[in-house]
Amino acid sequence: MNSPLQMIVDCDPGHDDAIALVVAAKYANLVGVTTVAGNAPIAATTRNARIVLDMIGSSAPLHQGAHRPLVAPPRDAAYVHGESGLDGADLPAPSRAADSNDAVSYIIETCRATEGIWLVPTGPLTNIALALRSAPDLRDRIAGISLMGGGTFGNRTTVAEFNIWADPEAAAMVFEYGGKLIMSGLDVTHKLQATPERIAKVRALPGRLAAVLADLFVYFSDVYVSRHDNMLGGAVHDPCAVLALTHPQLFTTVDQHVRIETSGELTRGMTVIDKRGLIERLDPNCTVVWDVDAEAAFDVIVDSIGSFSN
Ligand code: BDR
Ligand code: CA
Q1: Is it true that domain 6-308 has CATH number 3.30.70.100?
Q2: Distance from the CA of 237 to the center of ligand 2, in angstroms?
Q3: 188 close to 292: Cβ distance less than 8 angstroms
Q4: Which of 15, 81, 190, 237 is catalytic?
Q5: Closest ligand 1 atom, residue 161 Cα
Q6: Please, which pLDDT band fits residue 310 given cuts at 50, 70 and 90?
Q7: For residues 82-103, average pLDDT
Q8: Does the active-site annotation cover 237?
Q9: pLDDT tens string 255-299
Q10: Which of 243, 31, 56, 185 is nearest to 119 (CA)?
Q11: What residues does each domain of the chain span?
């Protein structure tokens, strides 16, 4: 698609990462894709990213990134995404390997060569932090960073969301980088659920891509419904980071100050959001996404999938 929005999606597919890639390929100029260890080890997330790009016929460059967090021990999310990172569907074999094993250099070189690219991280922030640390000039080259992570409640600990919890030191660097930052956390992503009725819309589309993604939605949603008291389907987290850019009219945001807790015994990986109504609240460094028109947002996702279906 001819879109003024240029994106590098940095991901750890991951069911919802896969959907984020499809939405980005439809509604933005998907400049490139980089992978990070998170939901599954790096070999699996890279393989999965290649499979998704193959299925949508995308020739976007794919570069493999960090195999572990900066400081934290590597811990995946097989309890949500399965051992492969994309359990639940019969997937085709990937056509080829990644274009390199140096996602960080790819991000730096690409953002230096072309101004105004959005970085869209949908996994742990390791690659993005390493790129910003090696090349602080990127702050003034990129359009900004729109990430999925954080929130006022946790899913990996009481207060920590998985992507931030997996690499809190990297997240701290990203939240302090000083440029435009948009955060789609659990508060908004849990409002966008893949209910059976919504998954049926994907299932009704023609072609293999839609069938595979419907199967992935079913697996992911079954996990969420079985692990929560009151959910009707999987939280469609990662597409929110893309949609917040491509379809901002569907979201409600507030500019606020957000910092990452890296040392708390009970709170490591927490996004500390200054929601105070006091005049001494800290200056905003982040656009926090709080609400979404879920029906409309899911219809955009269905349209994206449909556009690659035949
Ligand atoms: C985030 O963690 C992963 O399991 C998902 O892909 C998403 O990026 C949600 O906490
Ligand atoms: Ca993810």
Answers
A1: no
A2: 8
A3: yes
A4: 237
A5: 10
A6: confident
A7: 97
A8: yes
A9: 999 999 999 999 999 999 999 999 999 999 999 999 999 999 999
A10: 31
A11: 6-308
Task: In whole angstroms, give the CA distance from residue 261 to residue 173.
Answer: 11
* Ligand 1 pocket, residues with Cβ under 6 angstroms: 14, 16-17, 39, 77, 80, 122-123, 148, 155, 161-163, 237-238
pLDDT-based confidence at residue 19 (cuts at 50, 70, 90): very high
The rounded Cα 258 to chain-centroid distance in angstroms is: 18
The first and second tokens of residue 42, run together, are 């790096």
In the predicted structure, residue 172 carries a pLDDT above the cut 70: yes
Atom of ligand 1 nearest to the CA of 13: 6
- Whether 35 shows a pLDDT value over 90: the answer reads yes
> What is the mean predicted confidence (pLDDT) over 5-16?
98
- Report how far ligand 1's centroid is from the alpha carbon of 253 (Å): 20
Task: Give one DSSP letter per residue of the chain, joined into a string.
Answer: ---S-EEEEEE---HHHHHHHHHHHHHSEEEEEEE-SSSS-HHHHHHHHHHHHHHTT----EEE--SS-SSSPP---HHHH-TTSSTTS-PPPPSS--SBS-HHHHHHHHHHHSTTEEEEE-S-SHHHHHHHHH-GGGGGTSSEEEEE---SS-SSSSSB-HHHHH-HHHHHHHHTS-S-EEEE-HHHHTTSEE-HHHHHHHHTS-SHHHHHHHHHHHHHHHHHHHHSSS-SSEE-TTHHHHHHHH-GGGEEEEEEEEEE--S-TTTTTBEEEE---STTPPPP-EEEEEEE-HHHHHHHHHHHHHHT--
